[in-house]
Design brief:
heterodimer; A: 317 residues; alpha+beta; Rossmann fold; OB fold (Dihydrolipoamide Acetyltransferase, E2P); 33% strand; B: 267 residues; MetI-like fold; 2 domains; 14 helices
Chain lengths: 317, 267
């Protein structure tokens, strides 16, 4: 199901959560809403779900105005940041809730819940209560619960935010696979640019209640629309008027006219790559990312003076 | 003093305080009944007017407890989940009966439904007897036991938040379905605990009912008023007997509360 957001604004008191936001999400797409906290991404997701009413603007689902439609009638599945499990119900009853409300026959519910328990790898956990599950399991239960009534849109609010790094990485892969299987239009909110780039087909970068850029992950990284996107999606350092990615800086030991001077403050080993944190002659800190071999050849060490030259840079007007 | 002996002395002071303030008076009741002979106390308990007094108390509970449970839940939902003008005032007013002496409550009702009160003449002209009859006693009992369910439910509702309800909405549940299937089961222990406390308060009510009931034996006398009646007529054995029965009911209520309390927040 396609989602169209048209000129939506929302205030909470004096705080402008969304400022004239418009966005098109095509049916079957996997989209990430990416931005720092307070950028309005969760509010936008909640407005799409009908959990929040916009002050102005409209929401179209499948081309039909759904702005006044209550959340019950929007055909959306919503996964909350803290999962919002029904604590007094077993995993089975949690997952079957949407079907029970729709008065499906018991046999149908049992079959569907079994399928979903299988899909989210919670077989054998059906009779447990949410309190008896780990964070990752609770997350998968919440997903199964949202998927049970076969929603046309799946909305996830910071779905992996409260999990540890390893479980997060697993669930990302899993969400990607799930989307490939079901092809349900999916929108998820995240503040983690790596997560957005990893999972989504398209990333919507938000800042201060506005959309800064909508693009595929690679395009977002290679051609950011402005300084905010450049700095938020991947890291970037400033050289005068220009912005440079850490891996687009060449490091040499002798000056050659086009280089600028910097002093190494710290060296961070990231495995295959090395990140050197430097301070420029103007006192501005910046970082350089280079391969381990290059770092070894240069014999980089703290205190050393080196010379850097941007291979590629970007200037925003 | 080391940590251990300090801990023991704190316990000793606590238990001693409870013993002198709570346990001693109740033990005295048992002691007196045993000393004077249980027969007199038993005959007082089985006397027609006493049985009637307990029946009146039960009727008052049976009306006041369900009404205040319903009101308490609705009121708690409004206080926690809704925004409306005057919410602070409602929140404060729910606690009014805790601060107000029951005697003042009784006297206010007496004035309101009396011959020159705002409501009194209307009821009189329609042939409904409010004062010195069940209606006024019910009103007084409801008044004094208003706060307890709301006070138990409000913090629980705050704690569980509204995300579960929102999740239910996105899964297709109406507000009514979300209330019955999600909200009510989540607050059920708080509601049950509130009901028990409300019942205890209704059973023990004396001051407000004393004023509006007229305390007519065999008619508008409640169990607590019956104790007073025996006491004033210098029938101490009777007073002990009825008081003891009320005490036993209180202990039973206490046991129910203790059994329920550890369950709070578990489910």
């Amino acid at each position: 199901m396609s989602i169209v957001v048209r000129h939506v604004s929302k205030r909470f008191g004096t705080f402008r959560a969304l400022d004239d936001v418009s966005l098109d999400v095509e049916g079957g797409e996997l989209t990430a809403l990416l931005g720092p906290s307070g950028s309005g991404k969760s509010t936008l997701l909640r407005i799409i779900a009908g959990l929040e009413q916009p002050d102005s603007g409209e929401i179209l689902l499948e081309g039909v105005d759904a702005t006044a439609r209550p959340p019950q009638k929007r055909g959306v599945g919503f996964v909350f940041q803290h999962y919002a499990p029904f604590k007094h119900m077993t995993v089975r009853d949690n997952i079957g809730f949407g079907l029970k409300i729709r008065k499906r026959p018991r046999a149908v519910i049992t079959k569907r819940v079994d399928e979903l328990l299988d899909l989210v790898q919670l077989n054998g956990f059906g009779d447990r209560y949410p309190a008896q599950l780990s964070g990752g399991q609770r997350q998968r239960m919440a997903l199964a619960r949202a998927l049970a009534p076969e929603p046309s849109v799946l909305l996830l609010d910071e779905p992996f935010g409260a999990l540890d790094a390893r479980v997060r990485a697993e669930l990302r892969v899993w969400l990607r696979q799930l989307h490939e299987e079901t092809q349900t239009t999916t929108v998820f909110v995240t503040h983690d640019q790596e997560e957005a780039m990893d999972v989504a087909d398209r990333v919507v970068v938000m800042n201060k209640g506005r959309i800064e850029q909508v693009d595929a992950p690679r395009a977002l990284y290679d051609s950011p629309a402005n300084e905010f996107v450049m700095g938020f999606v991947g890291t970037a350092s400033r050289f005068g008027d220009a912005w440079v990615r850490p891996h687009d800086l060449e490091v040499v030991s002798e000056p050659n006219g086009t280089t600028v001077e910097g002093q190494v403050l710290r060296i961070v080993h990231l495995g295959f790559e090395v990140r050197a944190e430097l301070i420029g002659a103007d006192g501005e800190p910046f970082s350089v990312q280079l391969t381990r071999d290059d770092a070894d050849t240069l014999e980089l060490e703290p205190g050393q003076i080196v010379f850097v030259r941007p291979r590629r840079s970007r200037v925003f007007s | 003093m080391n940590a251990r002996s300090r801990r023991y002395s704190v316990r000793l002071v606590g238990l001693g305080y409870l013993a002198v303030i709570l346990l001693a008076p109740l033990s005295m009741l048992f002691w007196r009944i045993w000393a004077e002979g249980a027969g007199k106390a038993w005959s007082a308990i089985t006397e027609h007017d006493t049985i009637h007094a307990f029946e009146v108390t039960l009727i008052l509970c049976a009306i006041a407890v369900p009404l205040n449970t319903l009101f308490g839940i609705v009121c708690a939902l409004a206080i926690v989940r809704r925004r409306f003008p005057g919410k602070g005032l409602v929140n404060a007013f729910v606690d009014l009966p805790l601060a107000l002496s029951p005697v003042v409550v009784g006297f206010s009702l007496f004035l309101l439904y009396g011959r020159t009160g705002w409501f009194g003449p209307w009821f009189t002209s329609h042939g409904i007897q409010v004062l010195f009859a069940l209606p006024a006693m019910v009103l007084a009992t409801i008044f004094v036991s208003v706060p307890y369910v709301a006070r138990e439910v409000v913090p629980t509702l705050r704690e569980i938040g509204d995300e579960q309800e929102q999740a239910a909405y996105t899964l297709g549940a109406s507000s009514w379905q979300a209330f019955w299937r999600i909200t009510l089961p989540s607050i059920r222990w708080a509601v049950i605990y509130g009901v028990v406390v409300t019942t205890a308060r209704c059973l023990g009510e004396y001051g407000a009912v004393a004023i509006v009931s007229g305390s007519i034996s065999g008619s508008t006398e409640t169990a607590t008023l019956r104790v007073q009646d025996y006491y004033e007529n210098l029938d101490q054995a009777g007073a002990y007997g009825v008081a003891l029965l009320l005490g036993l009911i209180a202990i039973a209520v206490l046991v129910v509360m203790t059994v329920l309390k550890p369950n709070e927040g578990v489910a």
